Amino acid sequence: MSDHQLACGLPPGPDFADLAALAESLGYARVWIFESPALWEDPLIHLALAAERTSRIGLATAVLIPQQRSLPAMASGLATVARLAPGRLRACFGTGFTAMVATGRTPMRLDALLDYVAALRGLLAGETVRYEGRVLRMMHSPGLATERPIDVPLWLSVFGPRGQARAAEIAEGIIGPLHPTLPTATMVSGTVLEAGEDPQSPRVREAVGPWRVVAWHGAWARGGASAVDAMPGGAVWRAALEGLAAEDERHLLAFEGHVTHLPSRDRGLLDQPQAGGAARGELTGDAASVRAGVEALWNAGFREVIYTPSGPDVARELRAFAAAATDAS
User: Of all residues in the chain, what percent are helix, strand and coil, respectively (each to 5)?
Assistant: First the structure.
């Protein structure tokens, strides 16, 4: 199974470089970093810091959002990380649903995302590109950036059939459903149980809870009151949210703690049947069952499994998951 890889995904924060170094020591093939400016610090800065702290582990973005940076700024930022970590950087892009809604905006259109990534590829190759009616080029003089072409594999996070169909024209790989021709990565959450530990123990609830409540966040953002009210406990959760802020400020609260922390109104959702068991994409169990879950994903055709730990002790989660998956790698 040497062509299959175990990776991890983490938010950019003060401990990112330390956790990246730990992940390298544990044998993870790559560490992916999230982006959502309203929730976390800057991912490219933290990748640069991690590049200085590591020597082997791949560094990747899951995902960068074009609307957060102009095309020249994105090219220059990626060029910086690529210089600091030669041959280790992978840049994956998406429309940025959570990040955009959390700032009161709508996600990028798919066609706009693909146009941006195609133009970015041209810039990194040293080409002059036309984008949104303007002519652009990386004009860095010798010694001020890595010489072009700059080799950074560009990936896409796409889930629908149209994005999947066009991905092969633009990208070297995707995060999402299995692609017929491109290497595909998938994200999983979860926690490895201690010997004899109850799957509903307080530790487990804290470790996996931030991911188990994501469905309510997404329902509110995509479908509004009717969508979230149709979910168990959704009406109570929505009422608590609406009681805290005016309508034009509620987007500031809906994703509070998203995939990292549990605000009090989210904590109550963990008692709902939909969140009481394993969430979609969650691998929680003893070491053998977690190992079997990772192997099943690889056997299904995924090239890379990205473990996204959460809760108060991410270092513990990284250690336990790596140990459980060792026999599967």
Answer: 45, 15, 40
pTM of the model: 0.95
Structural domain total, the chain? 2
Tell me how many degrees the CA angle 304-305-311 measures, rounded to the nearest 5: 150
Q: How far is CA 245 from the centre of its chain?
A: 28
Q: Which residue range is the domain that position 10 belongs to?
A: 5-177
| Cβ atoms of residues 320 and 289 within 8 Å | no
Contact (Cβ atoms closer than 8 angstroms) between residue 123 and residue 137: yes
Any alpha helices (H) in 54-181, and if so which ranges? 71-84, 97-101, 110-124, 161-170
Residue of 317, 299, 316 lying closest to 308 (CA atoms): 317
pLDDT in tens, 165-207: 999 999 999 999 999 999 999 999 999 999 999 999 999 999 9
CA distance 197 to 204: 9
* 149, 66 contact by CB (below 8 A): no
Q: Same structural domain for residues 34 and 159?
A: yes
